[in-house]
């Protein structure tokens, strides 16, 4: 009985530690922009953002990579159908597009998609984006 519980613990540890490792899709010897592109292609946005957070936030290249990652994460959230409720995905998309506009207020892809999502919300009675999402939108000059 005791051996079974140790085996179970080891199995659980392996599952948890594998889940936290960086995806195999990244060539760790590649330059950072290529690594970020690889993560975006693998839909590993949280990993990409986490890597970028460790970099110099004032570097224009890092800012461009943040913008690109947030934009792709927003598009992915909008257009990928999974088990997540649609409202959750749309709030995530709005949050990502808001981050894009915080970095680059001129990004028309983010603005167009925000307007599209908000126009859909307006057709659904008693359904609005989450209050913190609306606060973020207001900070980048978008009223709902």
In short:
This protein has helices at residues 2-20, 32-41, 45-53, 60-79, 86-103, 108-122, 131-139. Helices cover 69% and strands 0% of the residues. The N and C termini lie far apart (60 Å).
Shape: globular
The residue ranges in which pLDDT falls below 50 over 5 or more consecutive positions are 1-21
What proportion of the residues is helical, as a percent range?
55-70%
CA-atom Rg in angstroms: 19 Å
Cα(first) to Cα(last) distance is: 60 Å
Instruction: Tell me the count of domains.
Output: 1
**Secondary-structure-derived class:** mainly alpha
Average of pLDDT: 85
**Which series of helices and strands comes N to C?**
HHHHHHH
Number of strands: 0
Please indicate the percent range of residues in DSSP E strands (runs of 2 or more).
under 5%
Count up the helices.
Answer: 7
Largest sheet: none
């Amino acid at each position: 009985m005791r051996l079974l519980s140790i085996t179970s613990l080891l199995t659980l540890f392996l599952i948890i530690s594998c889940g936290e490792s960086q995806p195999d899709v990244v060539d760790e010897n590649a330059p950072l922009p290529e690594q970020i592109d690889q993560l975006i292609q693998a839909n590993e946005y949280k990993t990409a953002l986490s890597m970028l957070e460790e970099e110099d936030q004032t570097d224009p290249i890092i800012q461009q990579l943040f913008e690109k990652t947030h934009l792709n994460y927003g598009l992915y959230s909008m257009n990928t159908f999974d088990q997540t409720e649609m409202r959750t995905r749309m709030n995530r998309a709005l949050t990502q597009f808001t981050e894009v506009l915080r970095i680059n207020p001129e990004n028309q892809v983010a603005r167009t998609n925000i307007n599209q999502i908000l126009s859909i919300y307006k057709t659904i009675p008693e359904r609005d984006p989450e209050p913190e999402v609306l606060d973020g939108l207001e900070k980048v000059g978008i009223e709902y």
